Amino acid sequence: MKLGLYLHFPYCVAKCPYCDFNSYQLKEDNQISSYIPALYQEITAYSKKLKKSNVKAIYLGGGTPTILSGAQICNILEFCKDKFTIDKNAEITIEANPGTLDGEKIKLLIESGINRLSLGAQSFNNLFLKKLGRIHDTQEIIDSYYLAREAGFNNINIDIMFALPEQTTEDLQATLKKAVSLKPDHLSLYNLTLKPGTEYYKEDKRGKLKLPTEDEEFDMYNWAINYLEENGFEHYEIANFARPHKRSEHNLIYWQNKPYLGIGAGAFSFIRGYRYMNYENPARYIKEIMGGKLPIDNGEKLSLRKRMIETIILGLRTNDGISCKEFAKRFKVDIYNTFYKQIKKLVNTGLLQKDDCKIKLTRRGIFLADTVFREFVD
Amino acid sequence: MLKDYHCNIENIRNFSIIAHIDHGKSTIADRLLEFTGTISEREKREQILDDMDLEREKGITIKSKAVRLYYHSKDGKEYILNLIDTPGHVDFSYEVSRSLAACEGALLIVDASQGVQAQTIANINLAIKSNLKIIPIINKIDLISANPDRVAKELQNISEIKGEEIILASAKEGIGTSDILEAIVNKIPQPKGSSSFPLRALIFDSVYNPYKGTIVYVKVVDGIIKPGMFIQTMSNNIKYEVMEIGIFRPKMQPIKELNAGEVGYIIAGFKNIKDTHVGDTIIDASNPSRVGLPGYKKVTPLVFCSIYPIDNKEYENLKDALDKLKLNDSSLFSEAETSEALGFGFRCGFLGLLHMEIIQERLEREYDLGLIATTPSVMYQVTKKDGEAIKISNPVSFPPKNEITKIEEPYVKVNIITPSKCIGGIMDLVKERRGSFKNMEYIDEKILRLDYELPLNEIILDFNDKLKSISSGYASLDYELIGYQPSELAKVDILVNHQLVDALSFVVHKDKAYTRARKIVEKLKEVIPRQMYEVPLQATIEGTIIARETIKALKKDVTAKCYGGDITRKRKLLEKQKAGKKRMKKFGKVEIPQEAFLGILKID
To answer: Which residue of B lies nearest to A254 if distances are taken between CA atoms?
Structure first.
């Protein structure tokens, strides 16, 4: 079995007001030093079960993984290599927030085998960065970027958010132009989504956020797609753009609905049709795994139908769409038969395009992807 | 403790408790029940459970509709106290007044920190109208924010209440209970009437019980009623044999006879709840009294709307639910109808807007129905060119203009009681609603009573809300039908995607047609979500477009990111959204959410 490996680091310097990820402001250093042994413990627990699996890609996400010291990160990866079989040319990504990087740390990251860096820039406008609660400014993004380049990273992603409160299309254009001028290999473009429990969500409920209208969001996204494609990026997934051969291997595993193992607090795994989640609370997570139990909070064995639906929803996010041959091979059914009604309706309304061997979203379908997905769910 | 002794009329006291919402009506009632041993602390808990079971099994609400308490007064005598609950929301002046008609006194509860509220004034007026002795009680004096002195002054300002009459109480702490009971005995007059006169008993409520049929709640004014005797009502010649009579302790407890002044229930094989009009007088069939008691006006629905199940499969459930509600609510009217837009449903008639809201809420909450209710309307009288006169309560059935010679609409006399400083705003409001001023008088230097005549149609939507906002909640209103007057009305149709949605049609005065149509299409544009295609919205009168808006096509509907663990959550969210869409009504290609129908009710 081929496998993606995800490692979660739930600590940040500060919690951003829009963020609903499983992340916490770091209060004391010993939070990290007690978290790392738990990761080791969980990796060990799985190493026996999954010895024969080949790890194709590793992703260190968070939170802020780079809140750890370079040495700590090196050691964790060494440990992974020791416990799992990892492909020689596996993609190994680390998420980093500008402001948590310095030359020394970047050097150590490269030495540890990390070959892809994902920079959480979010914006190239200091005003918006401040409002987003980010700890860095534009200059720090640029500095971190060049440090990484000079140290030898030849695969760098930049995360950008749009549809921010009070943001105009012109604001986004300026940010994207700056981002592109750095010549990153990959660009992730997310529109802000308000999630219950976040500060932004509460502010919005109080009517305090001036969010762009649907038409404005459309204009931003539409402009961004055109601009990035003109600048040599391939729009290979709804929110992701890559230069040739620089797609994110790890994330493709998700979109292809292939198996992955998640290690750490709140991490998700999808193995043998079983999708489950670890305890989110780091203390609880640590307690469970150190007590000798797998720290699984809840999970679900997905029915064949649900797996098919999730595979479609995920696959349609990508520019490759869904190969009917692969679908048939995997589920032993013809996608056109099983989802005849949905596909016909969506093709007729111009949201889906279909040829002999695959279905994928049309340009309009990309903008209305959730409408498309809603057709497929039960 | 089972007492069932005969008691002289001079030892009977009948009273209600009236209060603004949340001022502590039921807590006071509980204290009185406990103090008199009607229920013990321990029983109270069991009681509630019993009652819930009973309600479930028999479909009747027993909770303190009319409870008999036995009280040994400080004067050494034993008294029968009948606490007659004022059912429903106190806004329901119709229902409150029918309970008050069976009483000689009322406990007026006012919250010690909130003070006099709009409903307090309305309550006092109701009690005065019914000739009741008012016992003013300031409750919740234990609250830190309590200011009984201020509240006492307010009470004296708005009424004839004297300072020394006011009882200070805290039902929560059990303070004042004994004072209240003594005041009931000493201040409230005994019932008028005599057991030696021919039977006259006032029906003040009725409930339906699947085992026993209709149970009527009565106050015997004159004479005696016993099982085995034959009775009839003043308005109906059908004779019924009395099967059972009894009192509420608080459960139903059969007794041998009810004498003048007493309150209890009668079971007499009434087949239909409609046979026993609340407000009617029960008389002895063999010795009929010729003089009916002052009852209530016959209830006629004033406000109408159509109610449809969102899911057409729920039609039968809606029908059953309405039938059940009608068993205990003779003022509710319903009749099956069909709408091209909404399918099978019911045209319903209500006492007023609040009644309508309560019924809708009960259908949704108690019967778990998803409903679409159309804009409320009134009953119009239309005279056609062929001379035919028709009554129309549904805009859909309005004949074309060229067939009509005359349209009349119902007018009401509206009494508004308000702090005098709000008069300017109220004048503007009434003028805007086509009202005419009739009279004004000062209740005291700060409180005014205003009389107006308005078309009913103008007050059924949001008049009360507006009034409350103009007066910061202090003004209250009361209205009664005074008859029909000719009016220039127009029926406005709404077309969604060029298709007539009959359920959105409405009748409006022609001078207001344009503004209202404009607001409705604007509101619809707001509440109907964008669809895959552009959707035009049009308002028309007799085919002429008077307002138009366009809902733009859906442009963006995509969540940004989706990685590993998100997918199951994402799928579940999509499933939930899809289920939500199923609750929308589909008109051609357009999905209209329930809020669209509700939303247009809330237009300024």
So the answer is: B564
